[in-house]
């Protein structure tokens, strides 16, 4: 089977999910620098897609290189979005605890809101929590992926243009 950019993106995404699951079960803190390992895997997957495409086809046109990298980005982002959705659906009690904690804090500090308004805010937060988190994940991964793809594609394009 030939590994194209989409399959490499799926592999990259699955590796990122494996790291996230391992960190979850090992109770690695969310603020730990180890969490950047996911971004390193993401970047390496994109570079792998582009450089292997160049080796296979000898094509060095920027649009071709960018296309390969972006296919990888989309596939990896899709895997991460599915994982995140499943994770939040399986851990709804944790989400409820976060919302309740925020609501209690808001009840203590908000002088301009009634308890009924704060309860409505908490219900709205709970309702939109998963879509909001998914949109942040998708946007940040697409943004990061496009930057890495542009940098890699541009560097290979310029290097081969000057040869």
From TrEMBL:
Tell me which domain of life the UniProt entry assigns to the organism this sequence originates from: Bacteria
UniProt KW Transmembrane helix keyword: yes
Span-the-membrane segments of this chain are 7-25, 37-57, 69-88, 136-158
What the entry lists under InterPro entries is as follows: DUF4199
Is Transmembrane one of the keywords? Answer: yes
- Keyword terms of this UniProt record: Membrane, Transmembrane, Transmembrane helix
Q: This protein is called what? A: DUF4199 domain-containing protein
Q: Which organism is it from?
A: Niabella yanshanensis
């Amino acid at each position: 089977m030939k590994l194209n950019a989409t399959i490499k993106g799926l592999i990259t995404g699955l590796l990122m999910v494996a790291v996230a699951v391992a960190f979850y079960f090992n109770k690695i803190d969310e603020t730990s620098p180890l969490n950047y390992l996911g971004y390193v895997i993401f970047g390496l997957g994109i570079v792998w897609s582009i450089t292997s495409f160049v080796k296979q086809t000898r094509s060095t046109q920027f649009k071709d290189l960018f296309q390969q990298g972006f296919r990888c980005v989309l596939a990896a982002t899709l895997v991460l979005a599915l994982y995140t959705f499943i994770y939040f659906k399986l851990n709804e009690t944790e989400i409820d605890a976060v919302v309740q904690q925020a609501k209690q804090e808001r009840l203590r500090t908000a002088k301009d809101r009634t308890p009924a308004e704060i309860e409505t805010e908490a219900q709205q937060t709970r309702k939109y929590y998963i879509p909001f988190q998914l949109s942040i994940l998708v946007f940040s991964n697409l943004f990061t992926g496009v930057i890495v793809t542009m940098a890699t594609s541009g560097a290979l394009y310029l290097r081969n243009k000057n040869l």
